[in-house]
Design a protein that fits this description.
341 residues; cell membrane; transmembrane; 2 domains; ABC transporter involved in vitamin B12 uptake, BtuC; mainly alpha; 14 helices
């Protein structure tokens, strides 16, 4: 068996273990055997053992399992997005977060909250829809302005405009929070992300979007492999760099925007996962993309587990956990790149 296959199998096993661990650990411990019994009962109608209570069954199916699966899907989506952006923009520090997608999506969510439209059944669908629309629109604005400033649509221009858009939209969010004290806490919590009480709707939407996006990215894996060597080389080998860059960036916006629309802004996953995965799986995107999805999902499940168990009964915002791990990692990548020059 090839080393890559062994590594992928180990990564799949780690992902499964992290999900079981995430579902079982909490204020009430539920053993793996009980978890499988509850799943068998709901999926196949197998009677529950007498040792498993209905309360535990409801806790698993209504609270913990959807939360853990949403965390896994979100981590996978963000990790894949970061992998694509680092390849497309040929920058080890590039991410969908830095392009302004997260800030744009957060601004859309903040506007819905301030307008008082986030409650009830309508708000449950309106807030994610507006958030996603703003996130996607942000990327098109960034690309549109970048193409006017730089007809060659260089990577540096896109990254710079993304940073400007992110700072600008974050400033507007701060102003909205200040001008609406009754919504300030909700807006601030949104900017730090949370998987609490999200239910199954986020999983039902984000899972197919993540899988379909991953399949499309895999279709473009050869183009991304070539683009990592530079735009001139890619053009010489027949790759339409501008067209591919616009399409891949737009799809990254949709994927990231969908994730942010349901859980809020979570940074650094799209920075950490691609670098860790490339160290073990090399540079081929056909291997790196699925590995990044698995690693990102596993990473965020464990981060969420830490967020809700480190200081019980309080819950640490998931964005704070990823930032604590991501900030030193960012510094490490930055100075490692400087040493290599």
């Amino acid at each position: 068996m090839k080393r890559t296959s062994v590594k992928m199998i180990l990564l799949v096993c780690a992902a499964i273990i992290s999900v079981i661990f995430g579902v079982g650990v909490g204020s009430v411990y539920i053993s793996p055997g009980d978890i499988f019994a509850i799943l068998a009962n709901h999926l196949f109608g197998v009677p529950l053992p007498e040792t498993v209570s209905a309360v535990h069954s409801s806790m698993v199916m209504d609270l913990r399992l959807p939360r853990v699966l949403l965390a896994f899907c979100t981590g996978g989506a963000l990790a894949v997005s970061g992998t694509v952006m680092q390849s497309v923009l040929k920058n080890p520090l590039a991410s969908s977060y830095g392009l302004g997608v997260s800030a744009g999506a957060g601004l859309g969510a903040s506007l819905v909250m301030v307008a008082g439209l986030s409650g009830g059944i309508l708000g449950a669908f309106l807030l994610p829809a507006v958030s996603l629309s703003f996130g996607v629109a942000t990327v098109f604005i960034v690309i549109g302005i970048s193409s006017r400033i730089d007809r060659g649509l260089s990577n540096v221009t896109i990254i710079l405009m993304g940073m400007i858009a992110s700072l600008f939209f974050t400033a507007i969010m701060d102003m909205l929070a200040t001008s609406s004290p009754e919504n300030a806490q909700r807006i601030n919590l949104w900017t730090l992300g949370s998987f609490s009480m999200r239910g199954w709707i986020g999983v039902r939407v984000l899972f197919p979007v993540t899988v379909l996006s991953l399949l499309v990215f895999l279709r473009y894996s050869t183009e991304m492999d070539i683009m990592t060597f530079g735009e001139e080389q890619a053009q010489a080998l027949g790759v339409d760099v501008k067209k591919s860059k616009r399409f891949l960036t737009a799809l990254v916006a949709v994927l990231t925007g969908t994730a942010v629309a349901f859980v809020g802004i979570i940074g650094f996953v799209d920075l950490i996962a691609p670098h860790v995965v490339r160290r073990f799986f090399g540079s081929s995107h056909r291997k790196v993309l699925p590995a990044a999805a698995l690693f990102g999902g596993t990473f965020l499940v464990l981060c969420d587990l830490a967020a809700r168990t480190l200081i019980p009964p309080r819950e640490i915002p998931i964005g704070s956990i990823t930032a604590l791990l991501g900030a030193p990692f960012f510094v490490y990548i930055f100075f490692s790149g400087r040493k290599g020059r």
